[in-house]
Amino acid sequence: MAADQGGRLRLVASAPGPDVGPGSAGGDPIGATGRSTDRRRRPLFAAVPALVWMLLFFVLPLVVFAIYSVLTAGLYEVSTPLTLDPYRDAITDPLNRTLARNSVIVGVATATVCIAVGLPVAYWLRFAAGRWRLAVLFLITASMFASYLVRIYAWRSVLGSEGIINSGLVSLGLIDEPLSFLLYNRGAVVIALVHIFLPFVVLVLYAAMTPMSDGLLEAGRDLGAGSVMLWRRVVMPIMAAPCWNAFVFVFILSAADYVTPQFLGGREGTTLGVRIQAAFISVGNWPLAAATSFLMLGGFVLLHLAGSFVLRRLRLNDLRLAT
Amino acid sequence: MNERRQSSPVTAVFVVVSLVFLFVPLLVVVLFSFNSIGSLSLPFRGFSLRWYRQVFESPVFRSSLRSSAIVATATAVSTLILGTLAAYALSRARTRWRAPLALVLFLPLTLPGLFIGLSLLVLFGEAEVSLSLTTVAIAHLVYVMPYFLLIAVAALQRLDPALEEAGADLGANGWLVFTRVTLPQVWPVLMGATFLAFALSFDEFVITFFVIGPESTLPMFIFSSLRRTVDPSINAISTLLLAITLALFAGSFYLTLRGGRRSVIAVTGETGSA
Amino acid sequence: MTVDVTPTVGEARVDVVDVTRRFGDVQALDRVSLTIGQGEFLTLLGPSGCGKSTLLRIIGGFDRPTSGSVRLSGRDVTNQPAYKRSVNMVFQRPTLFPHLDVAGNVAFGPRIAGSGGGRAQVRARVDEALAMVRLSGYQDRRSHELSGGQMQRVALARAIVNRPDVLLLDEPLSALDLTIRLEMEEELRRLHREVGGTFIYVTHDQREALALSDRVAVFDAGRVEQVGTPDDIYHRPATSFVARLVGDANVVAVDAESTDGPHACVRIGDRSIAVDGDTRGPAWLVVKPENVRVRATTDGVIRNGDHLTGTVADVSFRGTGFSYRIAVAGLTELVKAEVTGERPLPVGDEVTIGWTSSAASLLARPATRS
């Protein structure tokens, strides 16, 4: 369904169809009439309702939220003296440090596992699936649509002391007591998040692989590359940008997740997102929640920029494959 | 597509493991929703529909189901209208304003629901708007719009521009070309995207948690059930929710595929048959 | 009072006045002026990228010129968008609306115009238009059930049902197989005879242009090289470009020297050849391949009109005869010859080639352009 985020924005930003040359109906850059740019700009107005909506209910709230992050905190209220206290508190709080670390670990682990598993699956779909491709694609797409909460519940049940793993092992006589380490830790959180994001990653990577012609790999083999070499020299460079974009996407959404850690993380596996939500709803310290949120967002943006920078340096960021 | 299949037992293992990993937990829930005793531990005691009966008789369940349906319908309809117009703009405009427009419209995709929800809660608070299903629908529209646009913009871009030129040649102005030439080509895909919008809204929890008022949607209902002690009917509710969203997505999938094939024919003039 | 709504094409006169079209740095059309007369079938001929399609699209209203104007029956329509112009176009690729059947496609224009006079009348117009392109009975078919040729015929019907003042055709046959193409050419000629309107046709196929048109305008790099009847273009090309394009002539750069008589004299290699014509000085020698006679030199006898010796570089079978490429001393390009006969001269043989002096012509060769 969806392509990775970086790819998506690029897809949209570079319109097909020439800006110059025959075939652009109604184009006339330096017309005798002077009203030339009208026709090219006019279709944009159709987007006004959606744009207004987004500005009002997406951009504006974030702006207000950002303002909250520099206001003085009261109990379930904010007041004017502008201050950087919320940011200072957020940064210096030692619990935040731990939670931030947890968030990063969870995010990195989830994203890594998704990519590590998603790549081979995508490869199989693209090159080795044969007549099974459609069936497996359908299954994976279908699994993507299973409800978010149901997944969390399902894993809590499966990993719990009454769950099928434990009850199965007990009834088989392999263990006497249920294993407690399966649940209420970071690992469980990661497992559930991988369950949520893996289908998406598979589809994104598969979509990125489809332009690779079969001939590409065969040419590599013909030139003497074994499977490992093929991966290192041919597949990975092409897939570097899509993999990175998918990684960032999953990382951000996993690190900020606040529901999964609540149910599966226990004390050890709780993350920053949980605390932000609690700070706002339960504790009532709005500026702190806002400040922590924007610090988190800042981290995400930095991550994204750093990655783009690296990719651009390695000149892997915009490979167009001739099909 | 070239069908020279290469054998790769290693990746095939990954595929099998992934499929098992993805489906087994869900199947467990479905299976145990029919368990006559309310536990998730083996062995399976007996087949029974009592949990489903319990669920359907619960008034809270029924009202949350209704609320979810109402919100999802409102979201789907407004997404269809605003989204189709926006997709038209994105796919047809050729100025440099296009990129910033696209940025604003697509950005909610990568912003975690936590922040979207919190910031909306703040906005509603400042504007002294009381929380209700309406605020939920407002939030859902923001969340769902980029997904709709992804599909709709791609479909509109795939269209052969020559068809629209032909329409203009035959006397249709911009609006008529859109309604009589463009829309008839893409409406299956747009319907599919609308289904997707409905399903996404129906299942949404992360943002809803912040902006909902006294009513409850189905995911909120499940959430509060999860927080309490284990209630065996959760299996049944979960299975129901799975079935609903899966059915919606199947419908969306089918419509999008069917629409896609149509536009291929339109573009190439080829049919593959004589 | 009844209004005539028979499908047809009007006989508007089209004036292209000094039209220039720039795309950024690219000059697609350079001060082109052209008049298409009433009821004329005029073809814009030229290789890809020469600007012919651009001009057609400007006439059709899909593009606006950077400067210059277009007049339809004397009225300036330069700024009129396509949907307002009483001009209709048949596009290169089938552009039938896939969501409508054949009747729906043909009825599209009348329905938009709203002046159909009721559903029954629209249907009658559709039936007539389909009858004109010999597709009666195809009303309910969908575009994916039609062959390429049939689709283009529906496109034609869809255009003429609107009674446009001018019919534009943008390489409508180039996507079709050869046999279908020849059939469709006949259809177009017949249609033009029956309906008699102003047709403006674009193609890169010179054979097609010569077969269909009343007049041909040859384009190169945004400029009109020559406008004339097919006969003019073929037998009396005005520039070397036209000579090369139409009829694939041999075009050689020479110096035409005066002689005592009415002929000029040119040197090729170590030979002097007499050529008819008034041109003197730097010139192009133009000889059509079908006028070049080829003879094996083993014959030995010098005949009238023999000019040059050379060796056969390539021979290919043409059905009615053979096509030769001959390497001649003093010439950088191979000489093309089309000869009837039954037995080819093999590659490597020494041959003598020649032509009658009236079969060759001279064109002035300006110093700057090649």
Structure description:
The complex is a heterotrimer of chains A (323), B (274) and C (370). With 323 residues, chain A is mainly alpha-helical. Chain A has helices at residues 5-13, 38-41, 48-68, 85-92, 94-128, 133-144, 148-159, 164-171, 186-209, 214-222, 227-255, 260-265, 272-283, 286-313, and strands spanning 72-74, 77-79. Chain A has 14 helices and two strands. A two-stranded antiparallel sheet of chain A has the order 1-2. In chain A, a hairpin with a 2-residue loop joins strand 1 (72-74) and strand 2 (77-79). Residues 1-37 of chain A have low confidence and may be disordered. Helix content of chain B is 75%, strand content 0%. Chain C contains eight helices and 20 strands. Chain C has helices at 52-60, 102-113, 119-132, 148-160, 178-195, 206-212, 230-235, 240-245; strands at 14-23, 26-36, 41-45, 67-72, 75-76, 87-90, 166-170, 198-203, 215-220, 223-228, 250-258, 264-268, 271-275, 281-287, 293-296, 306-317, 321-328, 335-340, 350-354, 360-364. In chain C, helix 2 crosses helix 3 (119-132) and helix 2 packs parallel to helix 4. Classes of the chains: A mainly alpha (323), B mainly alpha (274), C alpha+beta (370). At the A-B interface, helix 1, helix 3, helix 5, helix 6 and helix 7 of A face helix 1, helix 3, helix 4, helix 5 and helix 6 of B.
Features:
heterotrimer; A: 323 residues; mainly alpha; MetI-like fold; two-stranded antiparallel ribbon; 14 helices; 2 strands; 67% helix; disordered N terminus; B: 274 residues
For the largest interface, the chains and their residue counts are:
A-B, 108 and 103 residues
Uncertain stretches of 5 or more adjacent residues of chain B:
263-274
Can you name the CATH architecture of chain B? Answer: Orthogonal Bundle
The arrangement of helices and strands of chain B along the chain is HHHHHHHHHHH
Spatial order of the strands in the main sheet of chain A?
A: 1-2
Helix content of chain A: 55-70%
- C-alpha geometry of chain B: globular
What does the secondary structure layout of this molecule look like, with pairings?
The complex is a heterotrimer of chains A (about 325), B (about 270) and C (about 375).
Chain A: H1 5-13, H2 38-41, H3 48-68, E1 72-74, E2 77-79, H4 85-92, H5 94-128, H6 133-144, H7 148-159, H8 164-171, H9 186-209, H10 214-222, H11 227-255, H12 260-265, H13 272-283, H14 286-313
Antiparallel strand pairs in A: 1-2
Chain B: H1 9-33, H2 50-57, H3 59-92, H4 98-106, H5 113-126, H6 133-158, H7 161-169, H8 174-203, H9 208-211, H10 218-227, H11 233-268
Chain C: E1 14-23, E2 26-36, E3 41-45, H1 52-60, E4 67-72, E5 75-76, E6 87-90, H2 102-113, H3 119-132, H4 148-160, E7 166-170, H5 178-195, E8 198-203, H6 206-212, E9 215-220, E10 223-228, H7 230-235, H8 240-245, E11 250-258, E12 264-268, E13 271-275, E14 281-287, E15 293-296, E16 306-317, E17 321-328, E18 335-340, E19 350-354, E20 360-364
Parallel strand pairs in C: 3-8, 3-9, 6-7, 7-8
Antiparallel strand pairs in C: 1-2, 1-4, 4-5, 9-10, 11-12, 11-14, 12-13, 14-20, 15-19, 16-17, 16-19, 17-18
